[in-house]
Each structure stands twice: as C-alpha cells, then as structure tokens.
Amino acid sequence: MKKGNLGSIRLDTSCLQGQAGAAGGCPVEKLLYVLFGIIAILYAVHLTDKEGFEKVSLQYNAGFLSTMFTFIDNYSPFHEALESDEELLEKLKSQQHQQSTPEPPKAETSKRRVFSEAELRRYDGSPGSPGLMLALLGVVYDVARGKEYYGPGGGYSFFAGRDASRAYVTGKFEEEGLVSNVDGLSSADYLGLEEWSSFYTKDYVMVGVLDGMFYDGMGEVTQHWRDLQGWIEEAHKDKDKNDVEKQMFPPCNVEWTQAEGSRLWCTKKSGGITRDWVGVPRKLFYPGQQPRCACVRDNGAPSTDPAAKLNRGDLDSPHVKEYPGCKSNSWECRGVKDN
Q1: How confident is the model at residue 3 (pLDDT cuts 50, 70, 90)?
Q2: Helix (H) or strand (E) holding 249
Q3: Please, are residues 114 and 211 in contact by the beta-carbon 8 Å criterion?
Q4: Are 148 and 195 in contact (CB under 8 A)?
Q5: 298 with 315: CB under 8 angstroms?
Q6: Which DSSP string corresponds to 138-193?
Q7: Cα(14)–Cα(38) distance, rounded to whole angstroms?
Q8: For 102-154, what is each residue's pLDDT tens digit?
Q9: Which domains are seen in the chain, by residue range?
Q10: Helix (H) and strand (E) counts for the chain?
Q11: Is 215 left (phi over 0), alpha (psi -120 to 50) or beta?
C-alpha cells in the first residue's frame, strides 16, 4: 500500500499489471482475487438453487458456505437491492407478522387453572355462587368488579359463567347464539373479537382457561385456537387492503330519493377520507366484491405508477367505469338508478 497526498490511501496494483518494479508478482493478492471470484460463483449458484446448493455443500462437508450465504440473504443490504418491490414488501410484512403474531396467555401452563364448563357455570354471580366470571375465546376472567353489568339482572348477565364468544360479534343473545365456536365469521367480526379480548385483558383479571373449544384439559391451545389466529391474520390483511383501496378510491357521498334515484358526488372529504383533491364519481368493481361508487383522482400520474408522465390520475384503472348519463369530468352524478 502507498500513502498518497492529503492522507488518502491508494492500492498499488502494479504487480497485478506486470509493471516494472513488481518483480516476483504478488501471489497473495492474486490468490485473494481468485478466492473472491470462486465465492462469487458459488453464491450465484446458491441464489439459483438454494436447497440444491445446501444439499451438495453438506455432502462435501462445506455446510458453512450455505450458512454464510443464507446469512447474507437475510441481512445484506446488497441482497435487498436485488429484490423487487413486491418481494421486499412481502418480506417486511412477514417480519412484522412474526413480531405481532399473538401468543397464548403468558401464564405458565403448570400454573394456569383450567376450568371445566360445569365448574365455570357456578360462577354466575347468583346468591351462593363462588364468584362472577366469564370466558372469551377460552380465557376466563374475573368480572366481579363489573357485577352491575354481568351479575343477575345486569344487561350482560347472559355472558356470565360461560364462553359465548360468538355472540359478542353476532349480537345473538338467545341460548342457541351463546356459543364459543367462532368459525365462518366475517373479517370485521374477527377484528371485533380481537378488540373484545384486548378490552377484557386490560380491564379485568385473567384467572385461567376453559377446557373446551380453545384449550384442552391440560391448558394447551387447541386447533380451533390456532385456526382463529389464522382468521384474525387474514382479517388484518383484508383491513389493510381495504384501507389502501379507500385511500386510492375514497367512497363517494351518496344521497337517494325514490323520485330521483341516487345523487353521487365527490368532495375533498368523503367516505371518511380527507385528501387534497376532489375527483369524479366512478363505479368501482373488483372480482368477488360488491361494486360501489368511488371518487377517482382525475389528474396527475396514476397511483400505481407515480413516475409515469401522464395527467389522468387513476381514470384508466381497469377497476373503474363511468356511470351512464354522467359527464365524464363532472364531480357530481344525478339520477343514477344503478349504483
């Protein structure tokens, strides 16, 4: 190495170029270049077929190479630069999900009290009962502090002494609706159950779990509990998708009369979305979803391609179409019979 002006460091490659004064060459440097070249080729092979590379490297006692390359895949910013936007976003979502995936209640299984359904029934707050409890998603809470709500005569007394998780989101408070099974609900319902669970965890004391739909007799989670986590995850994905969709295509303001039909119009705040543009009414449709009126931005680049040199906003989206009889550039449509 030679020290240049102003303290800069320069690499002397004269020996590699066969220049005078480089008698004997530079075998160490050449060896390093060859080694780096081999590693680069092996890494390229790893990227092409990771599973195959791992098998072969283990066969020749070189498993450390697969481990090293996998480390680079996971943590190297260079590797992230090679990923597409979709791949990077998917990886970030996956990492976020891993961090936010709910776990069973933290009480250790050996210390967790497991109630039978018959035992929990006794805790309905009636005279002579040992207490006032209820279960939600298999978790038993002491709700004695809310006896005016859950005790005899209270507005929610039907929840006491049982797990009626489904009724919390269906509103079916008759005996046949007060059940713990929560399959087949809507995304909004699963998010609602998650909110109820957070409420009870925050405001009341967890005292155990119920042997039934969500936990077994040993206090371990059941398949239904695991299924529920998947349904909640899907519900969050649907919510995120809908939130993005509503930001891009805010719902219209809607007014309907029997005589004139629907009036659809756009303003800078509609459907709960505030923005700096008004837009024009269009019918928005996606496969498997009910069409609705959306305010569509009619200037600037498309939301899906911000770098495009166009000035039509999202008017060319394949998911929108004009309402018959409505001016294409109008912020308002009147007399719409089918919206």
Answers
A1: very low
A2: none
A3: yes
A4: no
A5: yes
A6: TEEEE-GGGHHHHSTTSTTGGGTTSB-TTHHHH---SGGG-----TT--HHHHHHH
A7: 23
A8: 555 544 444 679 999 999 999 999 999 999 999 999 999 999 999 999 999 99
A9: 12-82 (no CATH), 109-240 (3.10.120.10), 249-336 (no CATH)
A10: 10, 14
A11: beta
Pair of tokens at residue 323: 């309402």
Neighbours of 246 (CB within 10 A): 14
333, 323 Cβ separation under 8 angstroms: yes
CA dihedral (279, 238, 291, 251) positive or negative = negative
User: Which residue do the tokens 């042997």 mark?
Assistant: 211
What does the mean pLDDT of the chain come to?
83
CA-CA distances (angstroms) from residue 307 to 85, 142, 249, 300, 301? Answer: 15, 57, 19, 10, 7
Please name which of 298, 276, 294 lies closest in space to residue 286, comparing C-alpha atoms. Answer: 294
| Placement of tokens 């009126």 in the chain | 293
Q: Could you tell me if 285 and 319 are in contact, meaning their C-beta atoms sit under 8 angstroms apart?
A: yes
Identify the H or E element spanning 286: none
pLDDT at 14: 55
Backbone angle region of 334, left / alpha / beta, with phi > 0 → left and psi within -120 to 50 → alpha: beta
pLDDT value of position 75: 59
